[in-house]
Design goal:
It contains 13 helices and 13 strands. By secondary structure, the chain is an alpha+beta fold. It folds into two domains: 167 residues, Helix Hairpins (Orthogonal Bundle); 215 residues, Alpha/Beta hydrolase fold, catalytic domain (Rossmann fold, 3-Layer(aba) Sandwich), CATH 3.40.50.1820. The strands form three sheets. Strands 1, 2, 3, 4, 5, 8, 9, 10 and 11 form a nine-stranded mixed sheet that branches. Helix 1 packs across helix 7 and helix 1 packs across helix 11. It is globular, with a radius of gyration of 21 Å. It binds 2-acetamido-2-deoxy-beta-D-glucopyranose (NAG) (4 copies). Its EC number is 3.4.16.-. This is Carboxypeptidase. It holds the Pfam family Peptidase_S10. Belongs to the peptidase S10 family.
Length: 416
């Protein structure tokens, strides 16, 4: 379980692994452009001292091994190192009023749930709630949107969905593209989805980390992932307000990078099994297409892209060789990370292992389906652009209570 927890810490650092980050991200391009890059990091301090300060981890400084990792990374991947040590920009926000409920609990200080009913947007006719979990002392605000089951809400399970990201919204991915009650057409009108998960379950879509989708922090942030404790507080307050769902089977689901977060969130819930005030139970977790163990998974990008995955090679032999050549260093860095699960020990692997995927990114093929190109859309799927446009319509933002001035479906600044 420790692994799950540290990955949740390290995961915010880079937008990675999601197709949405491929064509937009400057991430990954540093490798070929090193000569043109200007490292603005102050040279008077060693890179690891800056990293230790950034990640508030002076203990790791004592390890000569981690020390040398950072020095060599700063040499080989200066731009990525610089990105890893810069705060994400604060998101511009405009507060909303007219909340239907403001839910607090004396046992959960500094946490508040603000809730609206989005009502008649035509996305579904079922009961809906949306709004924010506020972490008041930390100025973090996590957006959620709930759709009741179309079938039998008194008995159907409750499923919470988290998208991968770390920079992608659960609204862009899960809600409007993959499994929610409606898609969004080119005319920005909802298109009913009869196969939505809420045909047989009540579904909560949650935007995290902050500064993704409608979630935000008005301060620049580095640790952007909802801590297990924030997540636990969200569930307690939600089920406190809506006790009619609290005794139903409850599941946490997600994909891609959520493979990092979900085990950590489940662990938090289970570690609170003795909490006499817990008002819900966890039935299961579901992770689709998850990035859960890069020490095993990262080695297989190469065979997949080079003809050994059931599809002809999409890379040339030199590119395949390059990927194979990068793997041993990636593996060593991952081992350091697994042995010492701190950001300071793990970010080097995040930085270097990304290099392995670079040749594939340069092909412009869809990382989710390598048989097809991404096409003209910078997000690989043109539907993602319609969703982003829809989510930015003033009347939609007002209805759901969104406080971000500009909704970004996938944000490459998050944690980068
Ligand atoms: C840094 O870490 C120390 C010890 O772990 C902790 O007490 C302190 O609050 C942290 N500072 C910040 C800014 O997070
Ligand atoms: C799912 O919902 C449909 C439509 O209401 C219903 O016919 C079906 O029995 C439900 N399936 C389950 C497993 O509850
Ligand atoms: C959770 O499970 C425990 C043990 O089975 C049970 O006693 C409790 O009533 C359940 N809580 C809810 C809210 O369903
Ligand atoms: C992509 O854009 C080009 C130029 O604007 C256009 O000719 C082409 O039809 C577009 N392709 C797709 C698949 O939309």
């Amino acid at each position: 379980m420790k692994i799950g927890v540290f990955l949740a810490t390290a995961a915010f650092v880079f937008s990675e692994a999601s197709a949405f980050s491929v064509p937009l991200g400057s991430w990954g391009r540093y490798d070929s452009d090193i000569s043109q890059l200007q490292l603005t990091i102050d040279k008077t301090e060693s890179i690891i001292e800056q990293a230790a300060e950034y990640f508030n981890d002076s203990k790791s400084l004592l390890s000569p091994h981690i020390y040398s990792l950072w020095e060599s990374l700063a040499r080989d991947h200066p731009d990525a190192v610089k990105q890893a040590l810069s705060l994400s920009k604060p998101v511009k926000t405009s507060p909303q009023s007219n909340w239907l409920y403001q839910v607090t609990n004396d046992q959960i200080p500094n946490r508040k749930l603000r809730i609206k009913t989005p009502g008649e947007l035509g996305i579904d006719s079922v009961k809906q709630y949306s709004g924010y979990l506020d972490i008041e002392d930390d100025d973090k605000h996590f957006f959620f949107w709930f759709f009741e089951s179309r079938n039998d809400p008194k008995n159907d399970p409750v499923v919470l969905w988290i998208n991968g990201g770390p920079g992608c919204s659960s609204m862009t991915g899960g809600l409007f593209f993959e499994l929610g009650p409606s898609a969004i057409g080119q005319d920005l009108k909802p298109i009913y989805n009869p196969y939505s998960w809420n045909s047989n379950a009540s579904v909560i879509f949650l935007d995290q980390p902050v500064n993704v989708g409608h979630s935000y922090s008005s301060k620049p942030v580095k640790t952007t992932v909802a801590a297990g404790k924030d997540f636990y507080a969200f569930l307690k307050l939600f089920f406190q307000q809506f006790p009619e769902y609290s005794t139903l089977p409850f599941h946490i689901s997600g994909e891609s990078y959520a493979g990092h977060y979900i085990p950590a969130f489940a662990r938090e819930i289970i570690s609170n099994n003795d909490d006499p005030n817990r008002n819900f139970n966890l039935s299961s977790i579901l992770i689709g297409n998850g990035i859960t163990n890069p020490l095993i998974q990262d080695e297989y990008f190469e065979p997949m892209a080079c003809g050994k995955g059931g599809h002809p090679a999409v890379l040339n032999p030199d590119q395949c060789q390059f990927m194979r050549d990068q793997w041993p260093r990636c593996k060593r860095l991952l081992e350091v990370c697994y042995q010492n699960p701190t950001a300071l020990a793990c970010v080097p692997s995040e930085i270097h292992c990304g290099v392995i995927k670079q040749p594939f990114r340069e092909t412009g093929l869809n990382v989710y389906d390598m048989r097809v190109p991404c096409g003209n859309s910078s997000l690989c799927y043109v539907q993602e652009e319609w969703i982003t446009e829809y989510m930015n319509l003033p009347e939609i933002k007002l209805a759901i209570g969104s406080e971000v001035e500009s909704f970004v479906g996938c944000d490459h600044d998050v944690g980068a």
